[in-house]
Amino acid sequence: MEVRKVFRAGNSLVISLPQEMLRELELTEGSRVAVSVDRQRGEIVLRPFTGADGSGIAGDFAKQVEEFINEYAGVLRELKK
């Protein structure tokens, strides 16, 4: 177990993760993670996001859709009118 401190970054509170843990889980900058709370155990659960969230949408496809929306946000707003 490693103890980490919660700190402020802009308007958010952040907890940094040790490089060793990130390497072990193959997480890099920009990786997506699923965060949940186990209230019974009083724990925050952090897992690499694989797209297996029950929505039926694969993680890679969801990422492609997100990138498309970000790239073409202006055009999509115009089409909405």
Automatic annotation (TrEMBL):
Domain of life: Bacteria
Membrane-crossing segments per the record: none
SUPFAM superfamilies: AbrB/MazE/MraZ-like
Boundaries of every SpoVT-AbrB domain copy: 7-54
Family matches, as InterPro entries: SpoVT-AbrB_dom (IPR007159), SpoVT-AbrB_sf (IPR037914)
One family name in Pfam for this protein: MazE_antitoxin
A Gene Ontology molecular function term of the record: DNA binding
Name listed for the protein in its UniProt record: Putative addiction module antidote
Organism of derivation: Thermodesulfitimonas autotrophica
